[in-house]
């Protein structure tokens, strides 16, 4: 049997998802919610804390809880941000599934693009990102093996960047990005919940270390209805 605060959290979350609560609006006060649900303020506070942790609301001291837009997720264009870092804002709403993990020999095209040496091997990693129970991103990662020779499936399940920077001491410096709209492939249809979408957004990343070594190529394939690709621009 679920705790009462979980039931309240789920009901409020459903109302936010379904647009019954307007983005930017304030939730009713703790006292009003306590009366509505015949619950204590402590129970309401627990429900609101869970909503905040999962990215449904933003709590402002002295003002209340503001409803956030959960229909789309902001995905920064210019930054180098891992999915784990983005997922922290979503709490338990986000999940990573490692579908493929193996060592491969690079293709001729990949050798040329990444300026690989003759004997360089690569890690091939396919990860599906699930949010609110829907599989909406397929990340196809190719990493030069010599930069992370002891990479494991468990590390890929958690965060590759956290491992490279925190444990190996590498400095991830910059990336070149390309964004296109493409028709879904058989892989996309197999791994993602496309729900009849005819196009997907593909973000290609060519990622470099601080010595200008290209160590990673990634294709991040997104269902188009769930993301806003955002940036900040200044006229010089």
Automatic annotation (TrEMBL):
GO terms for molecular function: DNA binding; DNA-binding transcription factor activity. Signal peptide: none annotated. Residues 2-70 form the HTH gntR-type domain. Keywords: DNA-binding, Repressor, Transcription, Transcription regulation. SMART domains: HTH_GNTR (SM00345), UTRA (SM00866). GO terms for biological process: negative regulation of DNA-templated transcription. PROSITE patterns: HTH_GNTR. NCBIfam families: trehalos_R_Bsub (TIGR02404). This is Trehalose operon repressor.
